[in-house]
Amino acid sequence: MATAASTALPPERTDAAVTDDPFLWLEEIEGPGALAWARAENEKTLGVLQSDPRYGQFYEQALSILQSKDRIPYVSLGRRGLENFWQDENQVRGVWRRTTLEHYRSQDPKWETILDVDALAVAENRNWIFHGGSYLPPEERLCLISLSDGGKDATSVREFDCDTKTFVADGFYLPEGKQHVSWVDHDTLLVARDWGEGTLTQAGYPFVVKELKRAQPLSEAREIFRGEPTDVKASGFVLRDSEGHIHATCAVRAISSFESEHVVFRPDGPVKLNLPKKAAMIGLVGGRLLVRLDEDWTSSGDISFAAGSLISYDLAEWKQDPLRARASLVFQPGPRQALSELTATKNLLILTILENVQSKAFVYKYDHGAWSATPIALPEHTNVSLIAASDEADQAMFAVSSYLRPTSVWYFDAESESPDGLKKTPSAFDASNHVVEQLEATSRDGTSIPYFLVRPRNARFDGTIPTLLYGYGGFQVSLLPSYLGPVGRLWLEQGNAYVVANLRGGGEFGPQWHQAAKGATKQRTWDDFIAVAEDLIRRKITSPRRLGVIGGSQGGLLVGAAITQRPELYNAAIIQVPLFDMLRYTKLGAGASWIGEYGNPAIAEQRAWVDGYSPYQKLVAGKTYPAPLILTSTKDDRVHPAHGRKAAAKLAALGQPYFYYENIDGGHSAAANLMEYARQLALEYTYASRRLCSE
Length: 695
Description:
With 695 residues, this protein is an alpha+beta fold. Among the domains are: 4-64 and 428-692, Rossmann fold (3-Layer(aba) Sandwich); 74-137 and 160-169, no CATH class. It has an 8-stranded mixed sheet with strand order 32-33-35-34-36-37-38-39, sandwiched between helices. Strand 12 (208-213) and strand 13 (222-226) form a beta hairpin. Helix 8 packs across helix 9. The relative contact order is 0.11.
């Protein structure tokens, strides 16, 4: 825990250099003064929390669960088998491997190694973090592998041969950067990256797409599309069917976080599609082109579609004239529904649909001019999520879970129509003493805000249950029930409660739920979170003495807003990789890409929105804050570590207690491997136990 004496300006800087903000020097990510400050803060925080007798036990318990040999190896359904990326105590950075469906069904599958990332890191003396690969269809022998230095979003891309299991000599290679790469054919890529001065947006993403040929220097790549420097980013892609045939080459401009323009390249030149800005081209299935709509829209045939709908076009008609092709409805959400996930198999479309934050899966088939839906018989009262689909056959895999029920993996083959349970996560904690309830709080403007409460079965409602309230509430992201695993072991088993709030700004009830709390109305997200906290106290489930809040990234901003607006409601706050200084967020990391969510502080009217809640500016003398634990990563190139650094430094200057821990690696996840993640969990729940469970 730190106090005012622990933070001062580094001697090499003067007051004149830092105008209104005395902590601007902490924005220099690798600055010697900033790194020395972070190391000193880490030493103090670890000294306190790791000396707590609970820390060692929590760390071992978390690591045991995270590295469990019998945890589910989640797979993709590729043409060469079922593929998985696995990390454990021996494969710290991880191994990319494959097996067969027959082996996967067994208790101890035999795996074939494709790439050993630990061995590669040793051979090349680099801290490589695997960020996945992109196959060249349909053979799927060649793959573009993305490798990150320490977990950053920026990656280097290298061509890999999955038969020889080696990087292709003189193959495609793209140096480190935030980039988007798509295969066209064996000798051609579409690449959006930093091409030199003036080719990155303010957010640090590319807006120029070029066609790169095999063995061609980057300097000779041919430009095919250019967005605007004010965009978030641009990228190129191809529309390819399940056989690997290309039907169109396209580009997309992300004008903001939620608005895009789509272009298709035709022999007579590029054509901007007449889609609404809040729409996304999804892909092809059954001779139909699929598009998701995030706003109400009337198509060229005067057919109206509601926000949250999925529509489709006849591919042949669309290719002939994309501006006049007629759209038809695939799915339209009901009042408490939302489209959650979708994927295509060889001939079918599979959707998961939320209804009051509970999900179910359906098969959609286009036949005789109409789409028909058939439910997939998976366990009820669970969260169903798509984890894999095959484009060789009509097969898919689902993860089924709830807060207290261990996750299971189910295999679905449309020929048999009956899902088959393949794997189940071992129980990580004793859930017999807890129950789950879905409750509702009333926000400031009268809106009902649902939340899930996981509490002891025999709870006495006298305000004494230590409770952690988790939320996100942004970017149309939905928080859905999933097995609590380490949280159950480290927190619930102690007789505590855990709450997940489904706030406006998220996507639990479709695009409107998100759009109700963004930009000028973002305060509604914070109001919703505060309303849930007040409801927990009103019901005497917990009390301010026993209530803590937790969230990461946008959720870290949420927690920052909660403790600066209503600090008296909480006694603990876990703030992970947060946004915090919202008046400068567009100048830090990838912040400019989120103007669509928050507004632009450079515009006076929008600055007023942000200034109304920016937690960094709202930390003031005369208030008592709940001694937060702030966690971030030096290698986070998405949300700049200065947000967390400056929050801690300002708390110190105010004489307020806090804990701060900055992991060097890990990127925006703040952990590069399972051991680092176990340490993060142990720090968080040691802190929470000290603040909320002690007498």
